[in-house]
Amino acid sequence: MDILVLIKQVPGTNKVEVDEKTGVLKRDGVDSKMNPYDLYALETALRIKQNKGGKISVLSMGPPQAESIIKEAYMMGADDGALLSDRKFAGADVLATSYTLSQGIKKIGKADLIICGKQTTDGDTAQVGPEIAEFLGIPHVANVRKIIEIKEKSIVVEMDMPETVEIVDIKFPCLITVEKDIFQPRLPSYKKKLETKDREIKVFSLKDFDDKNEKKYGLNGSPTQVERIFPPSVNNDKEIWQGNSDELTEKLYKKLKDLKFIQ
Amino acid sequence: MAHLKVNQEKITDKEQLIKICPFGAIEEINGKIEIGAACKMCRLCVKKGPAGAIEYVEEDIPQIDKNKWKGICVYVDHVEGNIHPVTFELIGKARELASKINHPVYAVFIGENIKDKAEEILHYGVDEVFLYDNKELVDFRIEPYTACFEDFINKIKPSIILVGATTVGRSLAPRVAARFRTGLTADCTVLDVKENTDLVQIRPAFGGNIMAQINTPNTRPQLATVRYKVMSAPQRNDEKSGKITLMDIEKEKLNSNIEVISVTKKEKEVSISDAEVIIACGRGVKSQKDFEMIKELCDLIGAQIAVTRPLIEAGWADAKRQIGLSGRTVKPKLIITCGISGAVQFTAGMRGSDCIIAINKDEKAPIFNVAHYGIVGDLYEVLPRLIEKIKVSKGA
Amino acid sequence: MNYKVIDNNDIEILKSICPDRVYTGEEISEDFSHDELGGVKRMPDVLVEVLSTEEVSKIMKYAFENNIPVVARGSGTGLVGSSVPLHGGIMINLTKMNRILELDEENLTLTVEPGVLLMEIGKFVEEHDLFYPPDPGEKSATIGGNINTNAGGMRAVKYGVTRDYVRGLEVVLPNGEILNVGGKVVKNSSGYSIKDLICGSEGTLGIVTKAILKLLPLPKKAVSLLVPFPNLNKAIGTVPKIIKSKSIPTAIEFMEREVILSAEEFLGKKFPDNSADAYLLLTFDGNSTQEVEAAYEKVANICLEEGALDVYISDTDERKESIWSARGAFLEAIKASTTEMDECDVVVPRNKVAEFVEYTHKLQEEFNIRIRSFGHAGDGNLHIYVLKDDLTEDVWKKKLNDVFDCMYKKSRELNGLVSGEHGIGFAKKPYLFEQYSEEYITLMKNIKLAFDPKNILNPGKVCQ
Fold this sequence. Notes:
Chain A: InterPro entries: ETF_a/b_N, ETF_b, ETF_beta_N, Rossmann-like_a/b/a_fold. Chain A: It holds the Pfam family ETF. The complex is a heterotrimer of chains A (263), B (396) and C (464). Chain A has 263 residues and is of the alpha/beta class. Helices cover 27% and strands 30% of the residues of chain A. Chain A contains six helices and 15 strands. In chain A, helix 3 (94-108) packs across helix 4 (128-136). Chain B is globular. Chain B folds into three domains: 2-58, Alpha-Beta Plaits, CATH 3.30.70.20; 66-254, 3-Layer(aba) Sandwich (Rossmann fold); 272-395, 3-Layer(aba) Sandwich (Rossmann fold), CATH 3.40.50. In chain B, helix 9 (344-347) links the parallel strand 20 (334-338) and strand 21. The interface between A and B is large, with 99 and 100 residues.
């Protein structure tokens, strides 16, 4: 069985601030890492492989430096990896990113099962997975918190809903996005680092794709635009309430209602 | 459309220019400055770099006719016909936006045997509920639900679609957006609308460290998801208004490769590390009986109970419910601490909470240094009254 | 010893020194009668919260003149009963003297009051790209407490212990006089080092009211390695070879599977790996990824040669968190798994760690009692916990005593010492007396007498 895991390189820390005067993003260092949520996706793939065998490929989109996370995936046990890198992909929003990745998936050959993390730590939209499934015309299930069974032609998974848990059987090829904590991700192995030192990482750019229409990629293919960025307002409230118990209760009740903790 | 053009001759200091990019996308290649694949098009280099060095070039592209798209639509989120309250919150928002641009408010309701439930929506001031009622739609499955949504958009052409950021919404909205090759902004916290019907969408990014204002200038419909409890629900009107329209869709569009095997109620037990609301008890809670009272309050507001170490030692709670440096770290939206003095061992495990309400008799208790709202009072007086009030308001 | 019993007049005088910050009877929380694990309890007669050196000095002067015993206390996170007021009297609570007074970036020193918490120091200096290396597990301890136990922590392998980072102290002597020792100077050969005597004196020689700490530039990168081994012997046996390689990790910890499982259960969170019987956890720091990689690769190769099953790399915040949160919860997790426990904190030469731990395994069987351990393989400091479980009080006391006797005896055989970082306080006195010669103890007693001729400051501790 062929499993594909989509991974992304994200900043090493979320400590970004906006300089209020200049509107400039302040970010310390240029450290980056694999999106922590993708580790759960990769771990899920590795566990499935442990039980059922198969091949695990990873695919990422990003600048050439993003090769480092593919190497890291090799160190965790992935068999094969590719990077989609082209400056024409720059400035992509959710739609353009999803389209680019779906083209990349077509390029490397269809997988039976595509696994994505729940979301990324830099964009945290949790939408790229479902959009890719749409572009590939395959079904998807989001918020998977348990793999129940791998069958010949389908996978049975448990899906986390707000009030309920749904068990669904989904036919291959399909895409799932997995919850944090579905499995505890393993750490990269130094032994595997030595073994995979020379393993190839394929790099594809727009010219390798079936659809070479530049208008569908990067900024040009992005229907949304960021108009401005600004620092969030923080809860600096510091109130001390004194009084008799009825007054205090009233205040507490009102506050809980204002904050929507009581309907 | 648009791209960044580099005018090499206008660059004064290459190093300086490279540093401006927060994403490390400006590179020097063979002595020339180039913009690489890491570019996020934030255009800081245009604003902050030497004048004219990097230019934002807008190309002429055919503009769509926004007048062809009319109406603000809310997706009715539900499980087995039980409407999720985020739906009403979004209807409230949709009405507010619609009044600014004089558009109708729609709801699209997809499921099986939901006609009666649709009547309820008419109490919240929508103009029209579009109903897809079909036995293939009994459970949420992505392909048939997307097909219905597609059918609705093609027939009605709404300008704006609001979807609750629930498990279903987060699955369905991107699927629909991709099908129409349009924009979708997730987890918006503020929504507004411009005169030209462009939706102003504000959402947190980078784990909430910055806010971004996003718009969808040249595609329709515009999609946004909003989390539960971000917008305020409108009052329910006694009178109904608007109408229900039953929609037809071809059976073959409702095929699915997904089979729902079972739907079960989730067991309530949630780990305190994942809880959104926590009530934490300390030594100020005197007996196990009082502990039961606090559990009652937990049930009423959907909170998890947590404790400090003395209560673990007393055997009232499991060690898994201990907050602190040596216990678990929690980061809920709300934590109410009851009778906790606030030693660092405890506060280190919870000071990242969004809202901290502390109840303690001793006004000098250090917990008040970390609390957003400090109640100097007796929890034995305040909590029973609060429980009573909540019960009354719930109509129990 | 005959001390004056506290009366109302004393209270009034204390109140005139520290208005509104004097507590008696019911007003004193039960917490102040004990520390974390001492097994010894006594309430102070009066608790005074101080805000300045002058207040401490005035209280000591009064106590000295009136022969009242005094105990100083910080967060109360000690493990040997050092801050328990065995003779009642006055307890001075220093936790409100918690200001960071000065960061001197030209001399790389930080001047603090004793009540500043270890975690606050770490956070504050890191914001200035600086580093205070001592890293005891208990981050909510006060720096005053750390200085008084000469706390060690995990980074001792590379960076040393608290004493190595104390440049100068302001101390209130038992008679109330204020003494400054050391300073911002780097070198100091000016007579006996009183400063080094105060460090580790467990509040028996003077009360630290100000400390000048030495800082280092903050290493920019850190990577941890989690190294699984088929058994504990192989794991710990590798440590001397790592040290010999001269690629010095900041920390070398060992841990066994049972303790990891307890922590998983306690935190409700999985450890990244729990398949092996024993692990080493190593940390490397440095200023660039390349530097850190070069250092750890050398050690990783040694581990593989010595029979490690693999070497796992932890290089991101999430990965470090998944390991270190478990490591940080070991003590609580073991505690949660039993009814009562006691701890032995011996330190042995680094090449004897394996032998010692192996010995505790034997004791576990011999005495049929649960013994758990984890600790600092890199500096020879062991934390061995003997667990009561379902034993009756009598059996427990007897077995504990016997097991402890065996362990301290073994430690002496291996040229180890009674305490690596927790101190002697009250609980470990018998073992100290057994280890040291009469001359040694007499010398310590005389030092105590030189500082405190009336024996009013934390009497009954360490060498008494």
